[in-house]
Amino acid sequence: MKLNLVHLYPDLLNLYGDRGNIMCIKKRLEWRGIECEVKEVLHGEYVNTDEADLIFLGGGSDREQEIVCEELKKNKKALIDYVENDGAMLAICGGYQLLGNYYQTKDKKIEGLGILDIYTQWEEERLVRNIIVNSDLFETPVVGYENHSGRTYIGSYKPLGKVFFGLGNTGRGDFEGVVYKNIIGTYIHGPLLPKNPQVCDYMLLKALRKKYGEDVELEKLDDEIELMANKCIVDRYSEEKNRVAEAIKRRI
Question: Please, are residues 91 and 185 in contact by the beta-carbon 8 Å criterion?
């Protein structure tokens, strides 16, 4: 088997070590004896969705997002068709925002791709902290780091999960991310996939089953170290959350 991974605009969208997501995808396929070819699409180049089994769209500054959006709009129909035909895509932070109708910054409205009927609104307070999300898609929590000024409103779409610790889509600590067909959009950096192998394998399985059929299964890997790291983060911030709750009770 072979998976073709298309990495969109790594020359513009690569905040907070998100290239590590590409490295994780390649490694987890390699460990299973599955070939992975990475096609980087740089600024000014054409996006050929016919060559893609999995698309990765990372995060960038507002300026870089605006540049990328102008590029992606040339391929808007192809990208929408790719998603609607169950193409797999992982979009992080700025990439997540670009999936929607628009991102209203402090100074202007950046038109999105309209792949999803969602939108993002800038607010002055930046949301910067560690985050833990409980998702019904995975047995273990999703952990990472969020750093965003945008508040993303996903309407009736399914969120990636419920925030256990952190601020999430809107800063209210309710839900984080979005899931639609074989897309995951999320604000979680870290990078996301090395800290959450269950998310990586979810995306790989979606992509491989779309290409090779629903009978495809992934060989189980020894994720003891990754799961220990995940548990360490969950335990640490569970304790912090409990301390804050106790302090609030004492003040009441």
Answer: yes
